[in-house]
Amino acid sequence: MERVSVVVPTRERPGALVRCRAALERQSIPVEVVIVEDVEGRGPAWARNEGVRRATGEVVCFTDDDCEPEAGWAEALTGPVLAGEAEVTTGLVRMGNGATAADKAWGAIVNYLQVRAAAPGSASPGFAVTANLAARRSLLKRLPFDEAFPAAAGEDRDWGERAARGGDAPLFVPEAIVEHQTGMRIRTFLCQQFRYGQGAARYRRAAAGRRPGSITFYLGLIRAGFRAGLVPGLLLSAAQIATAAGAARR
Predict the structure, then answer these.
(1) 117 belongs to a structural domain
(2) Termini Cα distance of the chain
(3) Please, which residues bridge with residue 92 across strands?
(4) How far apart are CA 51 and CA 121, in angstroms?
């Protein structure tokens, strides 16, 4: 029995899944790989919970089918948990070669939320991207993902906030890197951000005290987009409009 399991939710992306599995086979420590095919469209929260139910490892890692973890990823990500230094860890998501402006804008959002997760005024306290997350299995059984979130939007923010509120804020491990497959188009990105807005509205309704970030928080987010380039910065600015529209629809 392996001490580490890796759960990969997937749906209708067989080519991406093949590349993800190949990357997991190159890990520097042995891992149990648990693939959860969401054939009925129950959502990533359900898929991750189902993966935890099937996993046997002491620590469970999560990544996505469109990601390729680097060879030392599992060892770096789970090291602090196995050593008793943390119950939850998260790592860096890096864009692969040929990243589009939309890819860079998405990456800027994710990395900014991670950096700001513990800062006052954060819109996502405890945020940990589920493409690069590990936690002790006992914690995940006690604190499952909320399956009321039907899509890949807000369920990760919700879980991270609940973990942090319970004293298990994710520890950031910069050496634990996954590469996100690239090629996102502008239309896909803006539709994604609209869906994120819907998820954000559900996130704020799910528990008392959750509120949007401060003006300073969002200005910092936009600046992070422009640090990735002019077009990514403009796209990230437009994404704020799409996100607000999605939230208003809920």
Answers:
(1) yes
(2) 44
(3) 177
(4) 33
The CATH code of the domain that includes 32 is 3.90.550.10
Task: Tell me the two tokens of residue 30.
Answer: 């042995």
In a domain, 231, yes or no: no
Length of the chain measured in residues: 250
Q: How many domains does the chain have?
A: 1
One DSSP character per residue, 36-54 reads: EE-TT---HHHHHHHHHHH
246 in a domain, yes or no? no
Answer left, alpha or beta for residue 72, where phi above 0 means left and psi between -120 and 50 means alpha: alpha
Within-domain flag for 99: yes
- Ranges of H-type helices in 43-126: 44-54, 73-82, 101-115
Under 8 Å between Cβ of 210 and 111:
no
Give the count of beta carbons closer than 10 Å to the beta carbon of residue 143.
Answer: 16
The answer to whether the CB of 33 falls within 8 A of the CB of 21 is yes
Q: Which segment, 59-73, 101-115, 190-204, 207-221, is predicted with the most confidence on average?
A: 59-73
Closest CA to 89 of 21, 23, 163: 163
Question: Do the strands 67-69 and 133-136 form a parallel or antiparallel pair, or are they unpaired?
Answer: unpaired
Block residue for tokens 């803006």: 190
Residue 32: strand pairing partners? 5
- Quickly state the pLDDT bin for 22 (edges 50, 70, 90): very high
Q: Which two tokens stand for residue 50?
A: 């189902």
Burial class of 172 by CB neighbour count within 10 A (0 to 12, 13 to 18, 19+) = middle
Q: At 182, is the secondary structure helix, strand, or coil?
A: coil
Domain that holds residue 106: 4-183
Give me the pLDDT at residue 121, please: 62
Say what the pTM is: 0.89
